[in-house]
Amino acid sequence: MSITERLAQAHLHPNTLTLASLGTAAEVAAEAPELAADPLAPYVASAFCVQLREGLWTDEHTAAFLGFAGGLEHQHSYLALRETADLLLEDEQALSIVAVTLHDALLPGDAAIASRPLLAGLQLGIALEVAAKAEVAPYRLLALLTGPVQNYPEDFEDPLARALGVAGDIWTAPAERSRFAATLAELADRGSEDAVYESAVEQLRDALTETSKQDLLIKVREARDAFMALSHRVEGRDDASAFAEACTALIAFDEVDEATLSAAAQAARSIADRRALLSRGMHSRHQATARYRAQLAWISLAWQLDVAATEIGEDAFLDTWVAVDAIMRVYEADRQFTNLQTVTSIIRPRLVNEIAQRRAMAHQLERAVAIDKQRDDPELPSEIYELLDLVHRGRGTQRESSDSPQEPSHEGTYLQALLGPVASGLDDLSEPRRAQLEEAARQAFVGIYAGDRPRNELIDRLCAGMMRELSENAAFTGVAKSDFTLLLANTVRFLVYVGDNAQTYTAPIPRGGVAPLEADIQNHFHEFLCASELAGRAGKEHSNIAGGRADVVVTFDGARRYVTEVKRELSNAARESLESAYLAQAAEYQSTSEPLGQLLVLDLTSHSGGTPHINESIWVTHRRDAAGKVTNSTIVAVVRGNRPTPSAMR
After folding, report:
1. CA dist 199 to 157, 239, 382, 466, Å?
2. How far is the CA of 6 from the CAs of 9, 151, 470, in angstroms?
3. In degrees, to the nearest 5, what angle opens at C-alpha 221 toward C-alphas 218 and 224?
4. Is the separation of the CB atoms in 551 and 540 below 8 Å?
């Protein structure tokens, strides 16, 4: 019996399929190209990956694997090729072995493009992804992307245009971008809708990296007009409509247009909801993660637009560069989501505009200080006020226009990001004082500064899962969904940050020592929220909320509020025990507002046997009525303290 025949039988029980069940490594190698061309190729790819993970790997296995990867150029099933490529691209070990062979085999030639244009488009997308993720020389790929297009069949033009768009997000050198733009223009002239769209995306990308506000706004208007023209001409171009709204929002910031800002905020929420609907049927980990990032980016933009519309008369709360920074994040997240039709792994475009980042950070300080001054008892440390004073003095130097990436960076990462070229003026300060200001800046911007933004995919997966659970609550919709999603995302980030960066309150408690207090984690959580999109909206120890005193409160538009009740646990941190002891109090705080709240617990029980994974440290719990309807939802987040260091574990 041939291996192909064994495969046909084994696929009826795919969970038990192994390379050994197909034959010896030498036998598999002999038939590897035929197996790659078979519609059941995904099963073979999975078997190779399992064999590699289990460590039972020889040189014969490598030869068989390379033969299989090379044979994929003869795979004629679109779905089988896509599924096989997904398996290989998501396995780092597997990709490290087959990357070059896979790229060279799938890069389509003229014959493949002419005879099977749609399949050739998929091959191009896979080859592009391999080149982006692995150490593969992209010269042949770039030559195909920027070569003559006159003889290409119509069905290949849109896949080529989408691949050019992805390439523009990966290779950003001016010469390459110019060549990509020229090819897109040719494809657009030939009638490719995707080429028109990708050309508009290129205009927006170019605009968002401008350091001249006047030039930026000119280019944003041009990009908006291009997106709007495409969305009006072609029904169903939701991607073009979305970016047209983003451009409109940025322009509204500059024009101080309250009505347009409010409308843009509503549009951003609608786009976030549509991103969720458009992703129905996407089941892979990467697809779910990309969907969530896109949703959250649009929700965050909506919130910032709402804030701007509400506080439009106050100069400290409106800055066009802040909109640029927010829309850059929307671009990065949404492009990854929409490019799933071309590639499926994590290829995240990154836009860099140091002025926009700097102004957004300064704006966050302005808002936090302005609100702090209105409090009866100011909460911000004096260093935050001093940082803002440094920003104001820096603006007075008139050096912003000469900002250049070639200037040497001050060793203080956060101060450099906040102050730019004028950070050199800090050289007059003593080392201890400069270090103190650097630490204050770090505390103010941790998780927001682009160089320190969390890239942990687990954060997105956890948030996506909890958002699904929260959807059982009828209150988790509209502006409440926007509000609470931002709070949830920052709570998860807080857990990851504290888990990765030891705090005094998470250190092992020595025998006879004093256990940390609730106030320790309460104060840190409040500081962390003040270093997020929620700057100026987070307070602590608020009286007269549901007849009690709430620990940490995030308030939106002066009315909608969400309470995080903070507790510590010394004896039993099991899920059921925590809910029994503290959940009723946490839920009660939301009895006069949206029925969505949080319980944050500092677990000081012994972790000498190991610290629970973060998956076990945050969850959603619902309160239901007699009919089973959800009446209240609480996020329970547990920070693990009393933790031994990894080196102390045995």
Report:
1. 14, 13, 48, 37
2. 5, 43, 46
3. 150
4. yes
Question: How many domains is the chain built from?
Answer: 4
Q: Cβ(159)–Cβ(108) under 8 Å?
A: no
Residue 6's closest CA among 49, 43, 46? 43
Instruction: Give yes or no: residues 15 and 66 share one domain.
Output: yes
The two structure tokens encoding residue 227: 């997106």
Two tokens, residue 326:
């927010």
Q: Indicate whether 254 pLDDT > 90.
A: no
| pLDDT for the residue numbered 410 | 39
Residue 542 pLDDT: 60
Q: Match 């929002």 to its residue by tokens.
A: 249
Q: Which of 63, 79, 106 is the last residue of a domain?
A: 106
What is the residue type of 243? F
Could you tell me what percentage of the chain is helix, strand and coil, using 3-state DSSP and rounding each to the nearest 5? 65, 10, 25
Q: Which two tokens stand for residue 266?
A: 């509503």
Written as six digits, the tokens of 375 are 């409090």
Q: From 138, 135, 59, 52, select the one nearest 88 (Cα to Cα).
A: 52
With respect to residue 120, please indicate whether it lies within any of the assigned structural domains: no
165 in any annotated domain: no
Of residues 598, 604, 609, 621, the one with CA closest to residue 649 = 609
Q: Is the distance from CB of 253 to CB of 261 less than 8 angstroms?
A: yes
Q: Say which amino acid occupies 40.
A: L
**DSSP track, 479-545:** HHHHHHHHHHHHHHHHHHHHHHS--GGGSPPPTTPPPPPHHHHHHHHHHHHHTSTTTTTEEEEEEEE
Instruction: Judge if 418 and 472 occupy the same domain.
Output: no
What are 419-439's pLDDT values in tens digits? 887 777 777 778 888 888 888
What's the pLDDT band for 550 if we cut at 50, 70, 90?
low
Helices (H) and strands (E) in the chain, counts: 26, 6
Residue 545 pairs in a beta bridge with 548
Q: Are 162 and 198 in contact (CB under 8 A)?
A: yes
Q: In terms of domains, do 439 and 465 share one?
A: no
- What is the rounded distance in angstroms from the CA atom of residue 630 to the CA atom of residue 634? 11
Residue 415 in 3-state DSSP? helix
CA separation (Å) from 114 to 118, 122, 527?
10, 14, 60
Shared domain check, 283 and 414:
no
Same domain, 202 and 58: no
**Shared domain check, 9 and 102:** yes
d(CA 636, CA 601): 8
Same domain assignment for residues 341 and 390: no
From first CA to last CA, the distance across the chain in angstroms is 51
Same-domain status, 442 and 464: no
Q: For residues 375 and 196, which has the higher predicted lDDT (pLDDT)? A: 196
Structure tokens at 197: 């769209």
Closest to 361 (Cα-Cα) out of 413, 295, 299, 435: 413
**Tokens found for residue 558:** 């002066």
What phi-psi label fits residue 281: left (phi over 0), alpha (psi between -120 and 50 degrees) or beta?
left
Strands 596-603 and 560-569: parallel
CA gyration radius for the chain? 27
**Does residue 160 belong to any structural domain of this protein?**
no
* Domain span at 285: 192-352
Give domain status of residue 570, yes or no: yes
Q: Which of 69, 84, 106 is the last residue of a domain?
A: 106
- In whole angstroms, how far apart are CA 438 and each of 361, 524, 589? 14, 17, 37
